Amino acid sequence: xxxxxxxxxxxxxxxxxxxxxxxxxxxxxxxxxxxxxxxxxxxxxxxxxxxxxxxxxxxxxxxxxxxxxxxxxxxxxxxxxxxxxxxxxxxxxxxxxxxxxxxxxxxxxxxxxxxxxxxxxxxxxxxxxxxxxxxxxxxxxxxxxxxxxxxxxxxxxxxxxxxxxxxxxxxxxxxxxxxxxxxxxxxxxxxxxxxxxxxxxxxxxxxxxxxxxxxxxxxxxxxxxxxxxxxxxxxxxxxxxxxxxxxxxxxxxxxxxxxxxxxxxxxxxxxxxxxxxxxxxxxxxxxxxxxxxxxxxxxxxxxxxxxxxxxxxxxxxxxxxxxxxxxxxxxxxxxxxxxxxxxxxxxxxxxxxx
Length: 354
Ligand SMILES: NC(=O)c1ccc[n+]([C@@H]2O[C@H](COP(=O)([O-])OP(=O)(O)OC[C@H]3O[C@@H](n4cnc5c(N)ncnc54)[C@H](O)[C@@H]3O)[C@@H](O)[C@H]2O)c1
Description:
The protein has 354 residues and is of the alpha/beta class. The chain folds into two domains: 2-154, Rossmann fold (3-Layer(aba) Sandwich); 158-348, Dehydroquinate synthase-like - alpha domain (Dehydroquinate synthase-like, alpha domain, Up-down Bundle), CATH 1.20.1090.10. Helix content is 47%, strand content 16%. It is built from 15 helices and ten strands. It has helices at 9-16, 27-32, 34-40, 61-73, 88-100, 114-120, 158-174, 181-184, 198-213, 229-239, 248-267, 271-284, 295-303, 332-347, 349-352, and strands at residues 2-3, 21-26, 48-52, 81-86, 106-111, 125-130, 133-140, 145-147, 314-320, 323-329. The strands form three sheets. A six-stranded parallel β-sheet has the order 1-8-5-4-2-3, sandwiched between helices. It has a two-stranded antiparallel ribbon with strand order 6-7. Strand 4 (81-86), helix 5 and strand 5 (106-111) form a beta-alpha-beta unit. The longest helix is centred in the last third of the chain and has 20 residues, at 248-267. The chain is globular and about 60 Å long.
């Protein structure tokens, strides 16, 4: 169930049907978002707060154990509810912790980042990172509701807003070219901090909800949401815990350059589309130095990707705007070429003007 600010009274009814209400926050959502949530005055006075450290490096089993220990200590029973207030890290780990506690208690997601709103909080994928592999452990489990309050975005750092922007741009390739206007069309009013028009946020929420509702466990068309993710995820994983760590959206923004290159090679995509995206990338995202990255290690990470079968590495590619094709098996040598293409693009001093 998707709830916007006007529908928020429905959350009161959901909460009232539970014995105990637990709020999961990270240190930033606790600081910036809880005060906003408190003004809405719908949380039970006996709400129990669980605060976890912020950041992907904490999306792990130790943090899950901490959440479970807090639930046990505060006598959470099967009719308790966990409300996850935060970015994708909090909704992923909170959904997972709730889905395993006493074989599953109800949970609600209240996303506080742009990426959380348009992607992570919707669709029922929950989980944690394990042994250096992203989202290696997890379950599909649907929240009772997802609650959207756009005022949370006012405190979000620009880098995090841009991370969400990458996922909205992705919809321009897999759903409808119109989404690319999120950055380019000056007619739309922008968020103060970034070139994002709020009207696109709602459209992206609805696109994700519609695609995932028809394929709750990712057996088919839902896979199109992984456009840009095969190489994007590998880069995000590879750079995690280094000085050059990148956000999820930055990984996707980079991965889309390689995915478009491969789309030309495998599906005859018009080269102009790749050139157009490279310009969008340049206008919005940072020029990242990937020269030290080991392509062999990236391939190794990709082989662990849950979306593969029998050792093949599978990609989502596009034939045209809004025409994605999933499960395309790409030869390792072509993947290497597509990463080299991305690195050359980022190195091209003439193009970047430095
Ligand atoms: N389940 C899914 O379908 C799905 C889809 C995409 C991504 N993900 C996961 O989502 C995670 C990334 O999500 P994210 O980009 O939201 O990262 P995040 O949750 O780590 O949040 C980014 C940063 O913003 C801070 N923050 C959150 N809300 C804030 C606010 N309103 N004001 C100021 N600071 C705020 C957080 O504390 C954190 O430091 C990754 O773990 C990724 O794997 C899951």
